Amino acid sequence: MDLVRETPNHFSLPRRISRLSELAYNLWWVWNPGAQRLFTHIDRTLWEKVYHNPVAFLRRVERPSLNAATNDRYFLELYDQVMRDFDRYMSAEDTWYRRNYPSKQNQLIAYFSFEFGLHESLPVYAGGLGVLSGDHLKEASDMGLPLVGMGFYYTQGYFSQRITEDGWQETRNLELKFDDLPVTLLTRPDGTPLMVSVTLAGRKVFARVLQVQVGRVPLYLLDTDVDANNPADRMLTARLYSSDHEVRISQEMLLGIGGVRALHELGYQPTVWHMNEGHSAFLTVQRMREMVMAGMGFEEAMEQVRKTNVFTTHTPVPAGNDEFALWLIDKYLSHVWEDLKIDRERFVDLGRNMQEWGETFSMPVLALHLSGKANAVSELHGKVSRTMWHKLWPDRKVEDVPIGHITNGVHASTWMARRLQILFDRYLGADWRENIDDPDMWAMIENIPDAELWAVRRHLKNKLVSYAIERARSQWVGGGFHPVQVVAGGVLLEPYSLTLGFARRFATYKRANLIMRDLDRFIRIVTNETRPVQVIFAGKAHPADEPGKMLIQQVYRAVKDSRSGGRLVFLEDYDMNLARLLVQGVDVWVNTPRRPNEASGTSGMKAAMNGTLNFSVLDGWWREGYNGNNGWAIGSDVDYSDPEQQDAADALSLYETLENEIIPLYYNNRSSDGLPHGWIERIKESIRTLVPQFSTRRMLKEYMSQAYLPAMDASESLLQTAANPVKTKEG
Questions:
Q1: Is the backbone peptide bond immediately before 596 cis, with ω within 30 degrees of 0?
Q2: Domains of the chain
Q3: DSSP secondary structure string, 445-469?
Q4: What pTM was estimated for this model as a whole?
Q5: For a surface tag, which of 45, 69, 117, 686 has the fewest beta carbons within 10 Å of its beta carbon?
């Protein structure tokens, strides 16, 4: 179909720099610092005011500033270089995928996720799952993988957070301004928006299809806020993770069924379908439905779909998985099993999950039943998942349950500080990004002088501290904040103290309060006159998670305890911008989940990429990454049956390691040049061992070999069989 990408803006730019608009609508600029510098060079103040959003920037920048840029030789040289790099990137033929899989050029991977975290200026993400999805798309673009993404355009994004004087989380949902976002509307040749429809409980719901360009990868987002829908249905894609089960099943049908229809309307025929978590598992049903309605038998359709589906599970506890009461399945999906030409019981069997209180329809069960390849996101999570879902394969040994693992990774160019990238350009060679997963290359980290690496680390901490202080100052000047909130916001931070960071979603299993289990001891540690410690907290709790909000309140009360001397800080409204500053700027990244509930975790990987040392429970990725010299472990590699016993043991380990190892290494035995060479040695060991192992480059290579390639081969085999059907006797 000949579709038109309609941008809501037609910027009036000087001809010499007119391609800034093209750059603004491709998120390639997110992981290319040179492109960002173009906008800061024109007007740094405006760039900060629009929260690093090029589209909003170009809508507001004044003409004199643009004219000045066209007369600035430095700017024009930078502009020309950035556009050459952009054109070279977008038109590249010699990609990793093309070099390694020349016979697979006609394949296409469809990647479905409930959220995508690409940049703070496009807040259609809630947390780690979305950021991982965004990193997946960016790396797929870098590697030249034939991939398209499918998700939702949340018109109200994720909530913004404010912490009251007594530590209670308040939330606000603000309507996103479409004209300010790097999102384009897809229209048909007659000018009408491209729409798909899904029948929900007997009514037809429409969704328009929007596009975000992520380098070479297109991401399509569904939006139900259209005139054809009733007011309630227009709100279906307003917010992430509704706690209303009817809204949730409607969203998941829209993503799975509507997403498949949208890709077909766009002219795509994916050969691999990747479900990132179970939210999109209804795509399996829609794919079978189309085959059956075209004349194929149900069992054959199920087998074909299974061979070309990939499923990634992220949830290590049964309660965290999406499942629906059977009455909801009856209400919303009865027409689907009719189209599949099966009865209700056969359909429910696809997702049936036996609970102590009765039966439910489980989205992960549906995905597991209908995927040829399924994976967890760390080695330990793989073991947990095989045990958790053993009941689906009762005749097999637990270790033979068909759920493997591909440990998560992070996109280096997005998360690594620019100053550090420049340092690596100098000492590792200009092609280090292409070889980021090569352990031998990272041995050259030893060539970097300690003084230069430490100078970058000090700069990054100064940047974080300055940001916190300026934000606290602006809140105070803006009014509406109590002095206690200003102190809690970091106004007393300073750049010379050992600084720890703890930032993530506030859920009880993540144990944000573990570090203050013995509050008196903790306060003595942070207020030591000769070896002080600062701890910066950040994170949101889901609006419906009362225990999570109470956990924030408990932490905040310790933060505002005057005995801490302002050395405990809570930075509100955690997002990707604050996450970058924290993983780059703190000295130590703390993670305290209750084993084995952390499926993987990725924030520590981002910290490691910036020379920030990890101090974590041996769960998820850190159990694989820790080698005894590249950070520190909290507790031991064992699981406790008694949570209270585990908490006590982990807290004791945390305090003893902090007091006896981390603090002395940071402060003691500095040489005559004032450098903590022992600390820097550990930084180098962390970078050397962790960066190649936990990059999305390694992750995507494993997805290709373990999941995508088998699905591609199966797809080719199915196409060949369809082209050459086996002849059978009549009758």
A1: yes
A2: 4-90 (no CATH), 96-408+702-723 (3.40.50.2000), 424-694 (3.40.50.2000)
A3: GGGS-HHHHHHHHHHHHHHHHHHHH
A4: 0.96
A5: 45
